[in-house]
Amino acid sequence: MQNVGTQKDRVEAGFDRVAGFYDALNFFVEWFISKHRKEILRQARGNVLEVGVGTGSSFEDYPPSRRIMAVDISGEMLR
Predict the structure, then answer these.
(1) How many domains, in total, are found in the chain?
(2) pLDDT of 9-56, one tens digit each?
(3) Which of 19, 36, 62, 74 could hold 66 in an S-S bridge, CB 3.0 to 4.6 Å?
(4) Which residue in 67, 71, 66, 36 sits closest to 54, CA to CA?
């Protein structure tokens, strides 16, 4: 069994490395998902916690009145 700290560090480092071009890599996937995500997120009520937010590309799909708390393992993705 791998050391959990080591595995977490590897995952974080991997996402940190691709953060600068992550959105470009996922452009077509995001375009397709965003259509459906808007319909789903329109139903969000109250405060929202988004886990694994990445670069925050989903923020524009939430209704303007939603308060969003977002977390991600990668500091570079959050930047």
Answers:
(1) 1
(2) 888 888 888 888 877 877 787 777 777 888 888 888 889 999 999 888
(3) 62
(4) 71
